Request: fold
Amino acid sequence: MFWIISVTIFFSVCGVTVNIPHRYHFVNENKTWSEAQTYCRGKYTDLATISNMDEMKKLNITLKKEPANLAWIGLKSESVGEWKWSQTFYKGGDTYRNWSSGEPNNAGGNDHCAVIAKNGFWYDYRCDLMLPFVCYDGKNSIYLFVQIKKRTWYEAQTFCRENYTDLVSVRNQAGNELIRNLTRNSVNNRSWIGLFNDSWKWSDQSKSSFRYWSSDKPRDDLKCAAVSGSEQHYWSDVSCTEQLPFICHEKFLILIKMNLSWWEALNYCRNHHHDLVSVRSEEMQLWVKDVAQKASTEHVWLGLRHDCVQRIWFWVYGSMICYQNWAPGYGTWNEDCSQEKRSGAVQAGGTQQWIDLPESYKLNFICSTYDD
Ligand SMILES: *[C@@H]1O[C@H](CO)[C@@H](O)[C@H](O)[C@H]1NC(C)=O
Ligand SMILES: *[C@@H]1O[C@H](CO)[C@@H](O)[C@H](O)[C@H]1NC(C)=O
Ligand SMILES: *[C@@H]1O[C@H](CO)[C@@H](O)[C@H](O)[C@H]1NC(C)=O
Ligand SMILES: *[C@@H]1O[C@H](CO)[C@@H](O)[C@H](O)[C@H]1NC(C)=O
Ligand SMILES: *[C@@H]1O[C@H](CO)[C@@H](O)[C@H](O)[C@H]1NC(C)=O
Ligand SMILES: *[C@@H]1O[C@H](CO)[C@@H](O)[C@H](O)[C@H]1NC(C)=O
Ligand SMILES: *[C@@H]1O[C@H](CO)[C@@H](O)[C@H](O)[C@H]1NC(C)=O
Ligand SMILES: *[C@@H]1O[C@H](CO)[C@@H](O)[C@H](O)[C@H]1NC(C)=O
Reply:
């Protein structure tokens, strides 16, 4: 076989958040939330999960062609709430808290949003109070204190998302001090941060804490979520037994249990699906782990390739490696290129990290099913 590799790829820039892309399908049949879930699980993967503004924009495009007033998505309220950050983190970043002692105590009975006070400690508060707030701007990695116009927590979230990235998440003590300093000279004692008590869970078990409620929602007594037909497509909570059209999403990854060389695997995915998978984020790695553990070979090919001329590893999707999960000692720039070229695979078991192997090894592999 004769192949020409072209490594003149348009490398994307590191630092951009990559999430699992979801392909959305609108189903124009009236069903209850549970019936819709069963339908989606049978025909696609599950009811739709929406993990960030980019996916919200994709959903917007899907819905542009559809007339429905409301359509189910895969979000349902459970009885127990948890404190979550407005912006989802998948990697150990969600454990820092600096509650004042005795907080959160839900003293008002409806205190589902968090503030930082001038003393640097956090308190739970009613989300509909008008307060200044701190946004995070991921592009420039800076915090911004907004106090000219006070807003409710949900309005503040919308403001931050549309103008910057999101309400601020406080990841550690240094961050907390920085934010405390920013708010120090405010006339208000308290400012919103991006922490909220939320009891909603995704049907597909996705951990995303992205929510896009209209500012008067959710009301807490209605337990299933639907996207509205308005221009903005904000989410509403609706009684789960109502009959509505719905949105499913499709599985992004497929394990192919054939034993093929890396090139054969690449070719197979490109002919039958979309591509050999490129694992560009922590969340994607979690999905890959899930899929890979069902493999019949010890390792599973990824779209990960070493280029002997430039001495770099890259994703066949066309990007450099930003997120990485190499097993210790693997993925170095100075691979042995004297024999056979090497490609990357994920361990089917154990810690499920990445290793490199000669390209002629015959392994199971994972295809992505569509472009993101
Ligand atoms: C679903 O129900 C709504 C309201 O009852 C109705 O207007 C619509 O035509 C129904 N759609 C379908 C596909 O049956
Ligand atoms: C959806 O599209 C409309 C225009 O058709 C736009 O006004 C709105 O901001 C969009 N919403 C999102 C979430 O992208
Ligand atoms: C979140 O809010 C619910 C409903 O008010 C409450 O029962 C629950 O204790 C809260 N959870 C936490 C962790 O504060
Ligand atoms: C919480 O905030 C206070 C005041 O800024 C600070 O003194 C304390 O060290 C913080 N605690 C933690 C665990 O970060
Ligand atoms: C974004 O900022 C502008 C200027 O500060 C403000 O007028 C606008 O309302 C903000 N966007 C949102 C959605 O709040
Ligand atoms: C906060 O402000 C104080 C006083 O201006 C300064 O000493 C300290 O370094 C600042 N801390 C941070 C984390 O910016
Ligand atoms: C600010 O809020 C905290 C927490 O509620 C409170 O302990 C403190 O006394 C308040 N300070 C002022 C100046 O209001
Ligand atoms: C692929 O290889 C594994 C391990 O050698 C073997 O157990 C499995 O049966 C093979 N699968 C096929 C389809 O040949």
